Amino acid sequence: MIDYFTLLLDAYLDKELPPSKVHLVEQHLETCLHCQAELKKRRHLIELLCEVPPMKIVEPEAQFIRKVNSQLTVRSSNSWQPKSILNISWQMIPVGLLVLAAFIYSVSIISLIFGSIPGMYEMILGKFTTIGFDFSRMDPLSFILWLFGPFQLSHWSWISGIAAFMIISLIYLSWLIVWWYQYNTANEYRMV
Amino acid sequence: MSVNLSAKDETTEMILKAQKGDQQAFGELVHLYHHQVIDVVYRISGDAYLADEAAQIAFIKAWKHLPEYQFHSNFRNWLYRIAVNSALDILRKEKPIENIDDVQIGSLEDNADMIMNKKERIRVIQKAVLALPEASRAVIVLREYHGLSYREIADTLDISIGTVMSRLNYARTKLAGMLADYLEET
Ligand SMILES: [Zn+2]
């Protein structure tokens, strides 16, 4: 009757079994009459199926190619790129955040340099207060400046800040590389 | 071997050109592959005209999606995938696939003389293949007539290797049952 090895016969016939299992199947075939008969039947079936010849083409080749060609839309080499950028844009949100953080850092550093010039800091502050900006209130902008900018120097050392920043960037970057690789390998089968 | 390799390079060249929008290069690819693509569809659908139509649709789709092809898989198998999906789409719209248990394969007992007739035998084999559910039919066609490996079939039909194996086992068992008269002959 049907046993475990009967189910392996197809893969055995198609040479799709790992060598270790091939050996087991061959060993089993020596003693199991049912599997022997089943294997013979399947070999014969495959021969029988191969008797059906390929289709006789109903349409001349030139006509077929002409028909296909007449329906092709003109495609420039990069017409697909905007779509592919759109497809991946959400993955780029962390990149955007990193760029934003870098921007805030550089603005803070520049403002620090300006601040070190006597009188300059007071001048900028003065300008801000004339347009209604008050540093004593914790609005979002000053909060971000406080978090990322030179204001944090007093309670968080540069080294630990940069180290944390780099570790997070590296983790994100490696994740991005893995994702990008998978995206590229899977993509050509995804759409059709 | 070296001839094979340069032919492969030539195909790659054509694909790259076609990806950049070269319709003539794409025409060359159609010339190279359309017989095989039509044959796959024909064996799955059993209808020469449907095969021709589905193959045309498949090549037009292939042109549209060609820039997304990245040489990770065999180009022929990539075309097969598009063609099989197009054919199954058309089949689903045009006629419901007959249930395997409802299909009567000829009247073998009545025509004992004709069993020896090769033409008749081929007709019966074709009918038996067409009586399979489309899922296992596609697997058997890609395996027996186009020699794809289990991995390639799995990629082409977007199923797991385990599913390929179970569908193949199912198809061969069913076919052996339907074609028992021929198999017992020898
Ligand atoms: Zn056995």
Q: What do these coordinates show?
A:
The complex is a heterodimer of chains A (192) and B (186). Chain A is mainly alpha-helical and 192 residues long. Chain A has 2 domains: 1-69; 85-187. Chain A has helices at residues 9-13, 19-29, 33-49, 61-70, 81-88, 93-116, 120-130, 140-148, 158-190. Chain A is elongated and about 100 Å long. Helices cover 73% and strands 0% of the residues of chain B. Chain B has helices at 2-19, 23-45, 48-65, 75-94, 118-130, 134-145, 150-157, 161-178, 180-185. In chain B, α1 packs across α2 (23-45). Chain B is elongated and about 55 Å long. At the A-B interface, α3, α4 and α9 of A face α2, α3, α4, α5 and α6 of B. Bound molecules: zinc ion (ZN). Residues 3, 5-6, 28, 32, 34-35 of chain A line the site of zinc ion.
Q: What are the main properties of this structure?
A:
heterodimer; A: 192 residues; B: 186 residues; mainly alpha; Rna Polymerase Sigma Factor, Chain: A; Arc Repressor Mutant, subunit A; 2 domains; binds zinc ion
The backbone outline of chain B, from C-alpha atoms, is elongated
**Helical segment tally of chain B?**
9
Query: Could you name the CATH topology of the largest domain in chain B?
Result: Rna Polymerase Sigma Factor, Chain: A
Structural class of chain B: mainly alpha
Q: How many domains is the backbone of chain B divided into?
A: 2
Q: What would you call the shape of chain A?
A: elongated
